[in-house]
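Sequence in, structure out. Go.
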Amino acid sequence: MPITVCTWNINSVRLREPIVLKLLEEEQPDILCLQECKSPVDKIPTEGFAELGYSHMVANGQKGYNGVAILSRLPITEVGRQDFASLGHARHIAGRLENGLTVHNFYVPAGGDVPDREVNEKFGQKLDYLTEMRDWFAAQPPKKSILVGDLNIAPREDDVWNHKNLLKIVSHTPIEVEHLAQVQDAGNWVDITRQHIPEGLLYSWWSYRARDWSDADKGRRLDHIWATPDIAPDSHSSRILRPARGWDKPSDHAPVFATFDL
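Output:
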């Protein structure tokens, strides 16, 4: 059975409920993973989602900040939430479908503006968060699992608009890229998006600061879909819905999709 998964940093699920509904109605993914929901769980506007067939949800909410949620057309059960680096932030939720597929939804800390943990506490928290992710997956290697989310790192040279210009910019620094690679290696995760789109510039985020974001096209691929090797070969049809960045009152991220024949 094909299962289409979408991940999207929505930057406030209540403020942007109309474009979530638009995505669900037009694209009809089986599973939609949202990050930066900025809402307690009981305030997430689930009624409209349910009317479109998304009657199942597992979520980890927080008032005004962070927050992750998995909306599903298929029954899903929460199987965990981790507070890596002990930040007290709602940044992870995991759910399992009846067919045994586990979906991890992550919102990795952005890390502030200065890539130096000695002067920027947030950057240190980001690195610590990634280190604990690595250790967690190394201790219990995942199987039949998908990991999605805003990982706040663009790892490859062609995941950013200008590799050399961004080497000292948070989200593309060598130390962040190395930490993310260690997480990926620890879980033996396969980067599904790049498995399907192996070459070329590819972005999922464009800054709000650029009004001409599409023409300037100074983007970064911060949003990812990974899978364990046992199901990676069963995936196809990866894409990034770039037009969503131009919808009314948009998020600064675009939705990322992949389909798995499970």
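Check: The chain has one domain: 2-261. The helical segments are 17-27, 46-51, 121-139, 163-166, 174-186, 192-196, 213-216.
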